[in-house]
Records
---
Amino acid sequence: MLQQPPSEPLSQDVSPTLNPSGKTAPLQEVFSSIQGEALYVGKRQVFVRFAHCHLKCAYCDTPMTSATGQCHVEDPPGSGLEHLYPNPMRPQTLLEIIGSLLKTAKHHSVSFTGGEPLLYHGFLKELLPQVQKLAPTYLETSGTQPEFLQTVLPWLDFIAMDIKLPSATKEAPQFEQHARFYQMSLNNPNTQCFIKLVFNTQTTLAELDAVKAIVTDRNTPIILQPETSLIDRSVSIQPKHLFDIENHLAGHFNDVRIIPQTHKMLNVL
Ligand code: SF4
């Protein structure tokens, strides 16, 4: 069990994206659960969810434009019991929370997710070397900020990198940033990088050709994630389109998988 959170007044006004290299960070929640997406789906992880993101993907299920003054920590896992910690949080406080949750079960790794965790690369640079002494580190990222990745790459064991398809995000393409980010991830041989593509009925083969140009190592795993409805959590992609998309990439890459979001089926955090 966690000790009682500190009793200092909770911050009401948190604007941490203005100070991305700072040594504190605003967090939404910290909890232990099952990875619901991509290559390590089904693995037990401790999740650290950061607030804020610089993008606005149309399918986003964690649209956090502002951080609240509190970080929610569920302990024991699955109990629904929440402890509230003041934001922004210091690395040492988060390290103690992670350490406590890791003791509750066998975990594959600690997932840093969001929002966009790399907005807080200064905070992560201080934290990750300490976390790596406890468990492998796993970054879930939009894959668009190579200059921030460079700061923390030596302490990352896994990178779940998105390549944002405009048909799904309804935003401008980020392919150039993705290419630089991907090439940088290859610089650390101890880091496994894999790609996650959220796609929908509007996704085109030309977008997938752009992915082929970005991901130069054909052994990099490619995970196709059908877009999930924000209204009823359904997936509305027809089998023919599903197979066409898969087939277009499977002829090029050695490990292509279609994996929908599963944590929403399990009704877990
Ligand atoms: S990058 Fe992730 S957190 Fe940011 S808007 Fe897109 S889906 Fe949401």
---
Amino acid sequence: MSTERAYKVFKIENGTVIDHIKSPLALKIIEILHLQNNGIISIGMNFDSDKTAKKDIIKVENVYLSKTETDLIALFSPTATINIIKNGEVIEKRLLEMPDFVFSILKCPNPTCITNHFHDCDTKFEIFKVNEKTTNARCVFCERETPVVPEMIK
Ligand SMILES: [Zn+2]
């Protein structure tokens, strides 16, 4: 199915479209943005894309995601693009920027880290872009630095 067809099949009048998501990360992104209980969501997976081999698309009806929220997607899929739709028109095309810090969504891979021993201890990671393909996260509690992978999602 082409991208154009994907847009026709589940066009939305109002809301947020997250496109060019590296496949198959759509479900992980819904998880980190806590979209599960947030109105109607359409998900398309494994579309052909010229940016990456295969891509996913998420459309969230009647929800306008903030830049802070959408920038979290850059951790896992920096090539994703955000379109904000109002009354059937694209009113904002937003590029992702890597966040400097992320709170709560990642878990520390260091088994002796304090964040893995107290359930109410929130995680905090400083984010470094290493190159086009790799982004590292450094735990501010134990200072362990590792490449960000979807398996780190809490
Ligand atoms: Zn840690």
